[in-house]
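Lab channel / #folding
Pinned by the channel admin:
"Please post every new chain as: sequence first, then the structure tokens as a reply. Keep commentary short and put observations after the output so the thread stays searchable."

First post following the new format, from NK:
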Amino acid sequence: MAAPCVRACRRLVGRTGAAQQLERGDGGSNSSSSIIIVRAHRNYSTSPFLCQYATPKQTDTAEEIVVPRKKTWDKLAVLQALAATVNRDHTAVHYRFQDDPYLIPRTSPEFRLYSLSHESGRNSAKYIVNTYPNLFQKDFAEPSIPCLMPEQLEPLINDVSEAALKEHIQLRKVKASVDLYDQLAQAGTPVSLETTNTLLNLLCVYGDKEPPREDQLEPREAVDQDEVTGDLQKRRKGRLRKASDLLSVTWRENNNAERIFNLMPERNAHSLCTMIRGMIKYGASTKAINMYTDLLNNRMKADVHTFNALISAVPELKEMYNEKVDFILELLKQMAEQKVQPNLLTFNSALKSLRKCGSIAKGLSLQIMNEMKSLNIEPSLATFDHLLGIFYKSAAANWSQTDIIFEVLDNMKEKRFEPRDPDDVNFFTSAMRLCLELKDLELAYRLHKILETGNNWTLLGDSYQQSIYYGRFFNVLCMMESIDVVLKWYKALIPSLYYPNVQGMKDLLQALDTENQFQLIPHIWKDIKQLGHSNKQDLVEEVLKLMSRDKHSPELQVAFADCALDIKAVYIRDQFRNLQWTATSLGNVTALLLRGGRTQDAWGMLQLFKTNNRVPGKDLLDEFLDQAKESGNKALALDLVKLASAFSLPATSELFDRVTTEFELTEEEKRSLEELEATSSDSSDSSDSDRE
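Reply from TO:
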């Protein structure tokens, strides 16, 4: 009985430790923070300006074990446990598209259209609910879901009072709040400092502009301008933009925030800190630093959020690298002097500003990581992203001597991250870019394993960033991995997670070319059509070039000929829009049809040369003549010479010699060919004299 009791006690202690971690809010697996130190920089010590806040080291005395009376489970614990037992189905589409199988997007344009329609429908529903709340008075939902019910958008207090002002501020009505404040000031009614500070918060958050409603649709003018100008960058991103992204708000001189701030009979540190953060947010960094000086002159103390904003504005305040670094150090020292406890965003802001300080920022960035270690602040994905951005500059001469990315991934191994910084979503795409530029396949696999750990995939960002990440990952696979493994990943990622662009399909074709897997090209062409890339000129010509470059087995040539006919149909259907016949594409399609035994279709392609003002090459005509000789088709050989004469090609005489030598011609056929040759030579001589 002793052994089961011991095991039961161990299980109970383990659950107790997990419960304590949940109560502390450190997430369990991320509770222990390990520092990243490059082996080449072991001599850096903890920075002196923040180390006074380091937590004391734990003693060796055993902690008292407190056995909880009961375990409190999260409402989603059962669903999360069930979800952990299910892996993603690679053959199924993304879960967001499974509501209506008919509308499942198959191509990248369809995916964008579906996403925009989905967002537009959601915004329309919000607009109806919030505009006509009287139509949704009864709540039939069981259980009730308050977030789906109409929001209170109209104020209930209509008189001129401080209570009405508070309600307007809570409803985020900027202009109405300012007007009500002015009415109170004109009536001589004093407004409390707390309410005035709340109004300043509202003005500084939205830049003295009305906040856009969540159900507000994108302005039509911006969409039309995007379509007219053909802004490739905007169309390539394909993001779901809100109206707030389209409004370029700057800090106006003597705006309502400044006017109300100057009218305040008394101000406290909160008032000045709010103004500083608002000025920095909307580009008035110089005015913000001047107000910070006023705050210090009045012997007030800034809060941690104000210091974070000031640190993030350093690149706009200073020009030289050393000036930026010195200013960051000065702000951190002032935090220590004012006994302001830094948080994660403080260090992330410092690292983000150091990314614009050149190579001299590497040493300070390691000191910052040491300081986070001493303060028991767990780095977020944004921390690692800024650290990689400091050590891996685009202009770096030799990245092979910098192994910080390997230590970063070692530190992140098997950890589960939660969103703690808005820049967290940039890590995976940036790190995969480094894997691609370093051409390190193992590093890419390690990064992808971290992405698939727990719910880390939720920090990949929006659909645009997901496309970038998987595109870079697939590019690394195509360059460094064997074709069998590439095809396995191709089936796993496409199209359930990734709609490849033109470059992605080119990378796959290059991988097939490297390992001589040309028999797969017809299948890849079907996928190209399904993904909506069959109207991309350079991609279609790349497919034709790979199929026509060498001769293959008769069975494969027949498959290539069928594929060439399909490509010809696409050209004819899409001609004069995106696809246009070139001499190269015409020649490749003709050669493929000829090698596949479709001589009549190949001859029809020769007629398209003349229709599209293109000239067939000599190699193609020689291949036609070889085919005619092999099949004993004397009529085809004669027609070929006539065609060359009609084009006035310099190779007409060579074709004439080959036909007269390799075929048994009648006297009438010889005379006809001699007349064609004479006509062709006269036309070529006249064209030469014209050029002279």
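NK: Confidence is low (pLDDT under 50) at residues 1-60, 217-247, 684-692.
TO: also worth noting, DSSP finds 33 helices and no strands in the chain.
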